[in-house]
Specification:
This protein has 196 residues and is an alpha/beta fold. The chain is 29% helix and 27% strand. It has a single domain (3-191), classed as Alpha-Beta Complex (Spore Coat Polysaccharide Biosynthesis Protein SpsA, Chain A), CATH 3.90.550. Strands 1, 2, 3, 4, 5, 6, 7, 8 and 9 form a 9-stranded mixed sheet that branches.
Length: 196
């Protein structure tokens, strides 16, 4: 199965190029597509990504609410992604090499489930998040994976976006009847910076 990784980005070129993109390229899963969505026109990033194996798309304009937490870009990425499964990675975070494989295998083993998620280690805070059942504070966008087309059944990323956009996304899915399988393993590194 092909897996699409969607990364929203805005003005974090260095972290995207040095941390995020290499971590996707290092996945042990054999078929991974990386879709990077600029949250508005970004000619400099387009130039930097010319020689990088990613699918780069740009929103035509930066959304009016500057703090949209990547929801517009994730939704746009869903229209471009071609994978059977979809996951997300913020531009300042990193997947561990087995992340995609762990989550894809969980959905392969549970064909009746709609999404899966794992755990993440938060650098700078020294703790982990992720647990069952999915609740506020236990889910981050970078630990999620779902089947392609799930957003058509259960909903897109909410816009305009609340602060806990990842939790609002998962909550809407669960309330709509989506089922999950939890992978109790740390597969993502989150980097806490400047209060974010």
């Amino acid at each position: 199965m092909k897996v699409s990784v969607i990364t929203p980005t805005w003005n974090r070129h260095e972290l995207l190029l040095e941390r995020c993109i290499p971590s996707v390229a290092a996945q042990t899963w054999p078929d991974v597509e990386h879709v990077v969505v600029s949250d508005g026109p970004d000619p400099e990033l387009a130039r930097l990504l010319e020689s990088v194996p990613v699918v780069h798309v740009q929103l035509r304009e930066h959304p009016d609410d500057d703090c949209n937490y990547g929801a517009y870009s994730r939704n746009h990425g869903l229209t471009v992604a071609t994978g059977d499964l979809v996951c997300y990675l913020d531009d300042d975070n990193a997947f561990r090499p087995h992340h995609v494989q762990c989550l894809a295998e969980a959905l392969e083993a549970h064909p009746d489930r709609d999404f899966t998620y794992s755990r993440m280690y938060r650098h700078g805070l020294g703790d982990e998040i992720g647990g069952e059942p999915p609740e506020h504070g236990r889910v981050d966008s970078s630990i999620l994976m779902h089947r392609r087309g799930g957003h058509e059944r259960f909903g897109l990323w909410p816009t305009p976006s609340p602060y806990a956009v990842d939790w609002e996304f998962v909550k809407a899915w669960v309330l709509a009847g989506a089922t999950w399988v939890f992978v109790p393993e740390v597969t993502v590194d989150y980097y806490y910076q400047d209060g974010h």
